[in-house]
Amino acid sequence: MNLLKPFQKGLFITASIMLVCIFFSCSKEEINNQDVSQQLSEVNLLSSVNEKNFQSPNQIYSELGKKYGFKTEEFVSSERSSEKLYSGINVNIYKISTQSPHPDGSGQSITISGVVLIPKYKDRIVWFKKEKIPYRIRFVTPFTYTSNSSAASVSYSNIFSIPDEIDQLLPLTMIAQAWTGKFAVFVPDYPGFGDSYGDCFPPFVNKDAHNRSNYDFLKAGIHQLENMGYELKDELLIQGYSQGAFSAIQFAKYLETNNLKKVKGLSAGGTPALLDKFIVKARSENFHPHPFFFPYAYYGMKENNLISIGENRIIQLNKFATGTYNNYDEIRALYDGSNSILKLQFALPNIPSKLLMSDFINANPNDANSDYANFFNVLRANSISPWNNKCQFKMFHGSLDNAVYTNQAYEYYVQHRNYGGNVSFDYTLGEHITGYLPFLLKTNDWFWNLR
């Protein structure tokens, strides 16, 4: 006779009643929200990286360090850790897709995408007991790009086929960091790339579009990882360089001021903080190393309904470097997602007076009656503004940066401190491109300690 049978039957009935109570205690709204969340996002395994196909980023750091003239001692970082740390490496790269509002404010939706890098293993054995491995989210907004082939959901499918070393550096670093630091690395595609390629023009300097798409991607990624059985820590880390710094700072502020998610650390490098002042200075230069950003910023605002002024008031229609453009559609076509920044560098003159209309170059940015007033007002409205940040916040900037001006980033740092915010500023070696290396290494070291 089984003496436990009545007890087992009673336990079963009690458990059943509890499940019914829990089910009916969930509101209809909560259930619907869960259903909507599942419907709006999807996940696909892009690739897996293990010992057989993993390439340590250390060699690339060393080669680029020599190329750019950095001394060996300046490359002390978590990336210099023993190769034994990579023993048994097994990192999955997932593509995450979800819906987000169109950046033009029309109310329509687009499908946005990005990747999540996370070690394969969800559990570990501690004192003969299996427990969940808690992963820290590391949200990485990418360096500026203009080609769809550079979007994370496209390029991370085969990292080792990326031709340029500096473009390979971030994915290889993040794979290594995900494994050794137990990070869940989120890398979003900017709207207009990845799954939304061709559905919108990239909102280059539109902070609201960046914040909405970043947050929707973050929520979708968390939802999918938790569905797979991963445990995620509550506070996240955010980092970005160049356009990525603009997006990262805006996103951290958005999360904190709206109480959406706790941010533990924010690292920004090569930051274009004060957009109106940046354009005013850049338009008057005798030479600018990256002229592609003028039309990129213009079309990003115009096609997403932030400004209405025509191209013929901003951009010259002349023979540019390697090509002659008969109409503005041909200039606009340069930004169709098929051209890299390097190609655009050769397609456009790096002398602003040959690229921009003289009226625009000479326009007073503070004249409320000017035809350009709305243009400059939009730039001011989308510039980074201070807040009383709760997160730890560090800014890094190359001391020789003549593309995204060092003094303007420092000016924002002063504004942020005067407002009451907490931030540090670190001058690093290099100009805008070469300054990316010390930024990434310093961020790796700092975030390693915050993991």
From TrEMBL:
Classification via SUPFAM superfamilies: alpha/beta-Hydrolases (SSF53474)
Coiled-coil portions: none
Gene3D superfamilies: 1.10.260.160, alpha/beta hydrolase
Domain of life: Bacteria
Matching InterPro entries: AB_hydrolase_fold, Lipase_secreted
Molecular function per GO: triacylglycerol lipase activity
GO biological process, one term: lipid catabolic process
Protein name: Secretory lipase
Organism classification: Bacteria, Pseudomonadati, Bacteroidota, Flavobacteriia, Flavobacteriales
